[in-house]
Amino acid sequence: FDRTLQKILYEAIASDEDFEYLIEEMREAACEYFKKLLKSTRDFQSMAVYLKMWSELLVRLVNDAQQLKDRYEEYIEGDVTYLADCGQFNAAEEIVNLFLTSKLIASEPNGVIHAYFDGKMGYVKHAAGKYHEALEYDRAAYEKYLSAFGDEHLDTIYAMIDLAETLRELGRYDEALQFQQQVFFQLFGQI
Q: What CA–CA distance (Å, rounded) separates 43 from 119?
């Protein structure tokens, strides 16, 4: 049930809409959950505890929704990284795809926000061992950051590090070395 609420919350964050519909979506999800719970148990005391807990969670999520929308990168960073590190690659991909296909970044397909989510998807694919797919996302993130910020910006440098690591995993050592050297020179200059 908590994953259902989280998905609704992510959809709300990814949209450009207000959060008024979020309350109704969460309420409907909670009602469906408790209908199923009612059919499977007659332990009304436990159910009352669950109901109180979820109603408090709903109120908290709705109250925090706008704040989360303002800080979506920080919030998603932790969740996607945690899921990928725990081997929950499909769940992590689902979250990143939600944003890659959202209205939030559709207006700027080559923008910084899109680069951020390309990088996140590259991370998930890399963690899953899907290096060829990771390479596409890592390269896209690097090119978008490079276009937006130039080659001295930290986001571009981090994207180069990710790209070099993926190239190394694919056995493309010469290309990986070029990016690693470029990162070294950007950070430490000519020695």
A: 47
